[in-house]
Structure formats: C-alpha cells, structure tokens
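User: structure tokens for Coiled-coil protein, please.
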Amino acid sequence: MSDEHKEFTFLDSIDDEMHENILRLDQKLKGLQAEIAVKIDALATPKDEAASERKAQLIMLSEEVNKAIDSIKTLVNTVIAEDISPKEFQKINQETLDSLREMFKDNVDKISKIKEKF
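Assistant: Done. Predicted tokens:
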C-alpha cells in the first residue's frame, strides 16, 4: 500500500459526482458574485434612499457569497487523515457524504433560481 502515508485532501477523497457538484456550486457562486458586483457598480452613486438600501443589501449578499466561496475552498483543501485512503474515507463517511452531495445539488438549484430573479 504505497498510499498509506500520503496526504489526501477532501477533494481527492470524494467521488466524481460530488466533485462535479462542488465545482458547479463554486462556479454558480462566482457567477452570482460577478452579477452582484455589476449591480453594486451600477449603484455607485445612489440616487435615493431606496437605491442606497438596495446597494447595502447587495454588499451584504456579496459578503455572504464570498464566505460561501471561501468555505468551499477550505473544505476541498482540507487534509484527510494520513492513515486512511480516499476509499476508506468514503466508506467511513458514506452517510455524511451523501447528505453533503444532496446539499450541494440543492444549493446549485437555489443559486440558479436566485440568478433568475436578479
């Protein structure tokens, strides 16, 4: 077993479907962030109270999206224990990984709906 002492990241230790879901969610969040930035720029000099409030809301949303992007980056780069292989990690954490996979899928759909409303 040459992999016994190799470090694996979370991204190395998940199946292809979850990997794709994470990448899609990350891309959707980055796309949403770009759209938010455009809207904030359009409100650079708010004309009234409503525009100022809208800009403040967009800035808060932008901060939340940034936190989500950073969280994904942290998750995928998390090092898994050296004494188990990616397959063992998947087997041990199957239920949690299944829940996480569903959460990523659901959030991709939610972001698509948010972008439609934008």
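User: Anything notable?

Assistant: The first helix runs from residue 16 to 42.
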